[in-house]
Write a structure and sequence with these properties.
It is a single chain. With about 100 residues, the chain is of the alpha+beta class. It has one domain: Ribosomal Protein L22, Chain A, CATH 3.90.470.10. It has three helices and four strands, in the order H-H-H-E-E-E-E. Strands 1-4 form a two-stranded antiparallel sheet. A two-stranded antiparallel ribbon has the order 2-3. The longest helix has 20 residues. The model has no long low-confidence stretch (mean pLDDT about 95).
């Protein structure tokens, strides 16, 4: 999915506690919300297992989506011409830390 679509959803969860962010994403009718919630759950699991943090105290400190390489294809058009097809994708990054 394109970074522009993901950034819309990431703006909703930035700065919130993890449990509130996941609850808010549960009611967003978009495939983007599913992907973002998976990334948040992964960040929480990494913090719990690698950094020995308590999941209930974690907060989404930073969340951003960067461009990834685009898949480029071409579609034939009339009169011997072509039209480009650009499949955009993104890298989703979520940083969690203890809430203050």
């Amino acid at each position: 999915m394109s970074p522009q679509k993901v950034r819309r959803v990431l703006g909703m969860v930035r700065g919130k506690p993890v449990y509130q962010a996941l609850a808010a994403l549960q009611y967003v009718p978009s495939p983007t919300a599913v992907a973002v919630s998976k990334v948040i759950r992964s960040a929480v699991a990494n913090a719990e297992n690698n950094r020995f943090m308590i999941p209930e105290t974690l907060k989404v400190v930073a969340a951003y989506a960067d461009d990834a390489p685009r898949l480029r294809r071409y579609r034939p058009q009339s009169r011997g011409r072509i039209s480009p097809i650009k499949r955009r994708s993104c890298h989703i990054t979520v940083v969690v830390d203890r809430g203050s």
